[in-house]
Automatic annotation (TrEMBL):
Family annotation (Gene3D superfamilies): Lipid/polyisoprenoid-binding, YceI-like (2.40.128.110)
Annotated InterPro entries: Lipid/polyisoprenoid-bd_YceI, TTHA0802/YceI-like_sf
Family of this protein: Belongs to the UPF0312 family.
Coiled coil residues, start to end: none
Every Lipid/polyisoprenoid-binding YceI-like domain range: 14-183
Protein name: YceI family protein
A Pfam family per the record: YceI
Length: 186
């Protein structure tokens, strides 16, 4: 956090994730030869940043499962069914942090519970602090980027189809890609 134009101590406080400048995305292998990328378009989140001791920071996010978007309505419809997210019965995907570790000058590991289809699992997401700035409206804004690979089977998403070549249609491993812009609360 040392490369920021705003002193670290001024970053301490509560933040709200800016959905217009944040992406919660994912990628998964399709037919073992290419990746399908998508994102969730409806989510809310908050964070508390401690500029003096970043390990005392925290974050929580709630994603509306029905907002999944892979730019293909037929695929999105299938992803909303019980084969995958079961959005009618489990409308929210949630993340709640349980700890933060400092890995380097601008790198942090956010530890917490990710709940999909009612199944909570511990995950660790490594984030790079991209900086802080005061926007044209006078708001303090921070940016983080991170990713983590999860197993969809661990969340009860076991649907698949076998290919003639011996592989499967959808990989078990899914990479979550997170680019966050958050605004300090007044």
């Amino acid at each position: 956090m040392s490369d920021t134009a705003i002193p670290l101590s001024e970053l301490t406080g509560s933040y709200t994730i800016d959905p217009a400048h944040t992406r919660i995305g994912f990628s998964a292998r399709h037919a073992m030869i290419t990746k399908v990328r998508g994102a969730f378009n409806d989510f809310t989140g908050t964070a508390y940043l401690d500029g003096d001791d970043p390990t005392k920071s925290s974050a929580s996010v709630t994603i509306q499962a029905v907002s999944i978007d892979t730019r293909n309505e037929q695929r999105d419809g299938h992803l909303r069914t019980n084969d995958f997210l079961d959005a009618p019965n489990f409308p929210e995907i949630t993340f709640s942090s349980t700890g933060v570790e400092r890995l380097g000058d601008t790198t942090y590991r956010l530890i917490g519970d990710l709940t999909i289809k009612g199944v909570p699992r511990p995950i660790s997401v490594d984030f790079e602090f991209e900086g802080a700035a005061r926007d044209p409206y006078g708001n303090v804004r921070v940016g983080f980027e991170g990713s983590v690979v999860i197993s969809r089977k661990e969340y009860g998403m076991t649907w698949n189809a076998t290919l003639e070549t011996g592989g499967v249609l959808v990989s078990d491993k899914v990479t979550l890609e997170i680019e966050v812009s958050a605004v300090k609360d007044a």
